[in-house]
Amino acid sequence: MRALALVLLLLPALAGCMGGSGEGAGDADGDGLVDGLETHGWTIHIDLLGRRVARAVSSDPGVFDTDGDGLSDQQEFLLNTDPRAKDTDEDGLSDCQEALHSVLAECEDPDWAGEVDGGTGTSATNADSDPGRSRYLQDVGFVDETGTIVAGVTWGDGIPDGEELAGYTILLPGGHLRHVVTDPMKGDTDGDLLEDGEERYLFGSDPTVVDTDGDGCRDGTDLFPEKDAAFRLGLDAFLLLRDVAGNGSANGSAQLQLFVGVLDNTFLLPDEGGFTVRLGENASLAPLEPAPLRDRSCSMLPSRPWVEIQIDTRYVVDGQAHYLDATSRSHPDHTGALAPSVFWNVRTGAFAEDAKGERPLATPLHWDGELWFTPQVV
Fold it and tell me: Which residues contact 195 (CB under 8 A, 6 or more apart)?
């Protein structure tokens, strides 16, 4: 940026390259652009917040710096900025601030003779200069009205450069307000694996503090970064709706073993034997050891809060094991492999067939019997 800015100061010497001969070929204001180009104008592309637009611009052939922002019209031409707008990308910083100086007063002072300091480091044509791909912008959408952006590429954290430099107020749980200043050239200022925009707009956590709620989990791996809370995944009760053994037993009961897979852990309940489930009666699983509960405090990105759940039941008839799938919409017998997964959104309570929640399930845990699934936030 410093090198670019220093080169720009020498550009008037290149004025002859900016036009030809004939009408409008002169340079009345000595700004380095021929009068015809200033009058007829040109087109620039600008990344405003969330969208790229094309803008037809021109400048005044009689004024050296048409918008008075500290950049000559020729400098604006080469920077792809609007010579009639002090803040081309509408991010709260003037073009000169972003391209040449970080102090607005110096930019606007026609007698300023100090060194060019390279500006703020942000782009004068991009309202949200944080580099790289953005989960936040991919979720809320980035619109390209020009057809010039490579497919799948988005920029920024959703916060304009000017706001990041000047600071803004965030609302924390309990109604507490906090003024924060974030880095316009880093999508994740505090390095906690959550983008600044996600923390500000989605989760109510502090983009300058790694562990907002102080619970020992950095915000990016804390499902509830805004409050001191963990989630507990539990199997609460099992209700048998028919004699799963299918052998016409008089008491309408079955000895079952329950396999549960949560996240990357798989465990069998109980350790030995099984438990009896009678037709039409709730069988509480709470007393079982190991208990069918798992706490997860520092486990998943809050931006992707989908927990994978796999549940199989096994019963024995005449010495032969049979498997019933409790997490799939179908319930074929299995040969010992875990059932197909369902996914649970810890933050919303929704169920789905996929880890992104794109295929929702209305009744996720249901087979010929019925499994009562009780997730909890503690």
Answer: 134, 135, 136, 157, 158, 187, 188
The residue type at 213: D
**In terms of pLDDT, which residue wins out, 368 or 110?**
110
pLDDT in tens, 42-94: 999 999 998 999 999 999 999 999 999 999 999 999 999 999 999 999 999 99
Residue holding tokens 């007698």? 111
| Total residues found in the chain within this entry | 378
Backbone angles phi, psi at 104, to 5 degrees: -60, -40
Of 207, 203, 155, 157, the residue nearest 180 (C-alpha): 207
Does the model's pTM come out above 0.85?
Answer: no
Domains of the chain: 2-108 (no CATH), 129-215 (no CATH), 231-377 (2.60.40)
Distance CA 219, CA 365 (A): 31
299-315 pLDDT, tens per residue? 677 877 887 776 656 66
Cα dist from 114 to 75, 90, 97, 118, 227, whole Å: 18, 26, 14, 12, 49
